[in-house]
Design a protein that fits this description.
This protein has 196 residues and is of the alpha/beta class. The chain contains 7 helices and 8 strands, in the order H-E-E-H-E-E-E-H-E-E-H-H-E-H-H. It has a single domain, classed as Rossmann fold (3-Layer(aba) Sandwich), CATH 3.40.50.720. A two-stranded parallel sheet has the order 1-6. The protein has a two-stranded parallel ribbon with strand order 2-5. Helix 2 packs parallel to helix 4 and helix 2 packs across helix 7. The longest helix is centred in the N-terminal third of the chain and has 20 residues. The two termini are 29 Å apart.
Protein backbone atom coordinates (compact mmCIF):
# COMPACT_ATOMS: atom_id res chain seq x y z
CA UNK A 1 0.00 0.00 0.00
CA UNK A 2 1.43 3.38 -0.96
CA UNK A 3 -0.39 5.27 1.78
CA UNK A 4 -1.13 4.78 5.45
CA UNK A 5 -4.23 2.62 5.95
CA UNK A 6 -7.24 4.60 7.15
CA UNK A 7 -9.95 3.25 9.42
CA UNK A 8 -12.42 3.16 6.51
CA UNK A 9 -10.10 1.47 4.00
CA UNK A 10 -11.17 -2.03 2.95
CA UNK A 11 -9.89 -4.66 5.36
CA UNK A 12 -7.47 -7.06 3.63
CA UNK A 13 -6.19 -9.60 6.15
CA UNK A 14 -3.10 -11.56 5.09
CA UNK A 15 -3.05 -14.21 7.82
CA UNK A 16 -5.55 -16.28 9.81
CA UNK A 17 -4.73 -14.11 12.85
CA UNK A 18 -5.49 -10.90 10.93
CA UNK A 19 -8.68 -12.44 9.50
CA UNK A 20 -9.94 -13.31 13.00
CA UNK A 21 -9.30 -9.75 14.18
CA UNK A 22 -11.06 -8.31 11.11
CA UNK A 23 -14.03 -10.64 11.58
CA UNK A 24 -14.53 -9.49 15.17
CA UNK A 25 -14.22 -5.83 14.16
CA UNK A 26 -16.98 -6.36 11.59
CA UNK A 27 -19.10 -8.18 14.15
CA UNK A 28 -18.77 -5.32 16.63
CA UNK A 29 -19.58 -2.74 13.97
CA UNK A 30 -22.71 -4.66 13.03
CA UNK A 31 -24.02 -5.05 16.60
CA UNK A 32 -23.18 -1.43 17.31
CA UNK A 33 -25.22 -0.16 14.38
CA UNK A 34 -28.13 -2.62 14.62
CA UNK A 35 -28.42 -3.17 18.39
CA UNK A 36 -26.87 0.14 19.49
CA UNK A 37 -24.23 -1.82 21.39
CA UNK A 38 -21.87 0.71 23.03
CA UNK A 39 -18.36 0.07 21.75
CA UNK A 40 -15.25 1.50 20.16
CA UNK A 41 -12.52 -0.28 18.25
CA UNK A 42 -8.83 0.53 18.41
CA UNK A 43 -6.51 -0.85 15.74
CA UNK A 44 -2.97 -0.43 17.02
CA UNK A 45 0.33 -0.86 15.28
CA UNK A 46 2.87 -3.31 16.71
CA UNK A 47 3.43 -2.64 20.40
CA UNK A 48 6.53 -3.64 22.33
CA UNK A 49 7.61 -3.52 25.97
CA UNK A 50 9.72 -5.40 28.49
CA UNK A 51 8.32 -8.89 29.03
CA UNK A 52 7.15 -9.32 25.44
CA UNK A 53 7.19 -12.76 23.81
CA UNK A 54 10.66 -13.57 22.57
CA UNK A 55 9.64 -14.48 19.01
CA UNK A 56 8.93 -10.77 18.37
CA UNK A 57 11.76 -8.96 16.61
CA UNK A 58 12.63 -6.39 19.29
CA UNK A 59 13.02 -8.68 22.34
CA UNK A 60 14.55 -11.40 20.16
CA UNK A 61 17.16 -9.01 18.73
CA UNK A 62 17.98 -7.71 22.21
CA UNK A 63 18.42 -11.20 23.62
CA UNK A 64 20.43 -12.35 20.59
CA UNK A 65 22.75 -9.39 21.04
CA UNK A 66 23.21 -10.09 24.73
CA UNK A 67 23.87 -13.81 24.28
CA UNK A 68 26.03 -13.68 21.14
CA UNK A 69 23.47 -15.37 18.88
CA UNK A 70 22.79 -14.07 15.37
CA UNK A 71 19.31 -12.68 14.76
CA UNK A 72 17.89 -14.09 11.50
CA UNK A 73 17.05 -10.92 9.52
CA UNK A 74 14.32 -12.22 7.25
CA UNK A 75 14.45 -10.84 3.72
CA UNK A 76 17.26 -8.51 4.75
CA UNK A 77 14.81 -6.50 6.82
CA UNK A 78 13.13 -4.83 3.83
CA UNK A 79 9.64 -5.03 5.32
CA UNK A 80 8.39 -1.85 6.98
CA UNK A 81 6.36 -1.97 10.17
CA UNK A 82 5.06 0.55 12.68
CA UNK A 83 6.13 0.20 16.30
CA UNK A 84 5.02 1.96 19.46
CA UNK A 85 5.69 1.37 23.12
CA UNK A 86 2.98 -0.50 25.03
CA UNK A 87 2.58 2.46 27.42
CA UNK A 88 1.65 4.67 24.44
CA UNK A 89 -0.86 2.01 23.38
CA UNK A 90 -2.27 1.88 26.92
CA UNK A 91 -2.75 5.68 26.86
CA UNK A 92 -4.52 5.41 23.49
CA UNK A 93 -6.87 2.71 24.80
CA UNK A 94 -7.66 4.78 27.91
CA UNK A 95 -8.32 7.92 25.89
CA UNK A 96 -10.64 6.06 23.51
CA UNK A 97 -12.47 4.46 26.45
CA UNK A 98 -12.90 7.74 28.31
CA UNK A 99 -13.34 10.35 25.57
CA UNK A 100 -14.25 8.88 22.18
CA UNK A 101 -17.76 9.02 20.77
CA UNK A 102 -19.28 5.54 20.80
CA UNK A 103 -19.17 3.48 17.63
CA UNK A 104 -15.87 4.92 16.35
CA UNK A 105 -12.87 3.01 15.04
CA UNK A 106 -9.41 4.45 15.69
CA UNK A 107 -5.96 3.50 14.42
CA UNK A 108 -3.08 4.14 16.82
CA UNK A 109 0.61 4.17 15.97
CA UNK A 110 3.56 6.31 14.95
CA UNK A 111 3.51 8.73 12.02
CA UNK A 112 5.88 6.67 9.87
CA UNK A 113 6.83 3.00 9.60
CA UNK A 114 10.42 1.84 9.98
CA UNK A 115 12.16 -0.90 8.02
CA UNK A 116 13.02 -3.94 10.09
CA UNK A 117 16.64 -3.43 9.01
CA UNK A 118 16.66 0.13 10.39
CA UNK A 119 14.97 -1.08 13.58
CA UNK A 120 17.65 -3.75 14.06
CA UNK A 121 20.34 -1.13 13.37
CA UNK A 122 18.87 0.96 16.18
CA UNK A 123 18.82 -2.09 18.48
CA UNK A 124 22.48 -2.74 17.65
CA UNK A 125 23.23 0.91 18.53
CA UNK A 126 21.36 0.54 21.83
CA UNK A 127 23.39 -2.60 22.57
CA UNK A 128 26.62 -0.84 21.61
CA UNK A 129 27.53 -3.42 18.97
CA UNK A 130 28.03 -3.47 15.18
CA UNK A 131 24.93 -4.25 13.12
CA UNK A 132 26.59 -7.16 11.27
CA UNK A 133 27.60 -8.73 14.58
CA UNK A 134 23.94 -8.80 15.65
CA UNK A 135 22.26 -10.40 12.63
CA UNK A 136 22.50 -12.49 9.49
CA UNK A 137 20.30 -12.16 6.41
CA UNK A 138 17.91 -15.07 5.85
CA UNK A 139 15.14 -15.70 3.28
CA UNK A 140 11.92 -13.77 3.73
CA UNK A 141 9.16 -15.23 5.88
CA UNK A 142 6.21 -16.77 4.03
CA UNK A 143 3.28 -14.35 4.09
CA UNK A 144 5.39 -11.39 5.23
CA UNK A 145 3.58 -8.09 4.65
CA UNK A 146 5.86 -5.61 2.89
CA UNK A 147 4.49 -2.66 4.88
CA UNK A 148 2.27 -2.19 7.93
CA UNK A 149 1.41 1.50 8.25
CA UNK A 150 -1.66 3.13 9.81
CA UNK A 151 -3.11 6.60 9.31
CA UNK A 152 -3.68 7.76 12.89
CA UNK A 153 -4.89 11.28 12.16
CA UNK A 154 -8.40 10.57 13.57
CA UNK A 155 -7.20 9.69 17.10
CA UNK A 156 -4.82 12.67 16.99
CA UNK A 157 -7.53 15.11 15.88
CA UNK A 158 -10.44 13.76 17.95
CA UNK A 159 -8.60 12.89 21.17
CA UNK A 160 -5.19 14.60 21.02
CA UNK A 161 -3.29 11.31 21.31
CA UNK A 162 0.31 11.13 20.16
CA UNK A 163 3.01 8.57 20.94
CA UNK A 164 5.26 9.99 23.67
CA UNK A 165 8.02 7.37 23.89
CA UNK A 166 10.57 7.58 21.07
CA UNK A 167 11.84 4.39 19.51
CA UNK A 168 15.32 5.14 20.89
CA UNK A 169 13.98 5.56 24.44
CA UNK A 170 11.89 2.41 24.15
CA UNK A 171 14.78 0.35 22.80
CA UNK A 172 17.06 1.55 25.61
CA UNK A 173 14.41 0.29 28.05
CA UNK A 174 14.26 -3.06 26.21
CA UNK A 175 18.05 -3.42 26.41
CA UNK A 176 18.00 -2.63 30.15
CA UNK A 177 15.27 -5.27 30.62
CA UNK A 178 17.25 -7.78 28.58
CA UNK A 179 20.39 -7.19 30.62
CA UNK A 180 18.43 -7.64 33.86
CA UNK A 181 16.78 -10.91 32.82
CA UNK A 182 19.20 -12.39 30.23
CA UNK A 183 20.08 -15.38 32.40
CA UNK A 184 16.42 -16.31 32.95
CA UNK A 185 15.48 -15.71 29.28
CA UNK A 186 18.33 -17.68 27.72
CA UNK A 187 16.49 -21.02 27.94
CA UNK A 188 13.15 -19.67 26.69
CA UNK A 189 12.23 -20.47 23.07
CA UNK A 190 12.48 -17.58 20.62
CA UNK A 191 10.51 -19.41 17.95
CA UNK A 192 6.90 -18.65 17.03
CA UNK A 193 4.58 -21.63 17.36
CA UNK A 194 1.37 -21.60 15.33
CA UNK A 195 -1.48 -23.10 17.33
CA UNK A 196 -4.85 -24.03 15.91
Amino acid sequence: MDHAAREDDPIRPTSPYAASKAAFDLYLISVSSVLKFPMNIIRPSNAYAPGQQLHRVIPRAVLCGLTGEKLPLQGGGRAEKSYMHARDLARAILMVAEKAPLGRVYNAGPLQPISIRRLVEKIADALGMPFDQLCEVTPDRLGQDSRYWLDCSAIRQDLGWEPQISIEEGLAEMVAWGRTYAAQLTGVSKEYVLRA
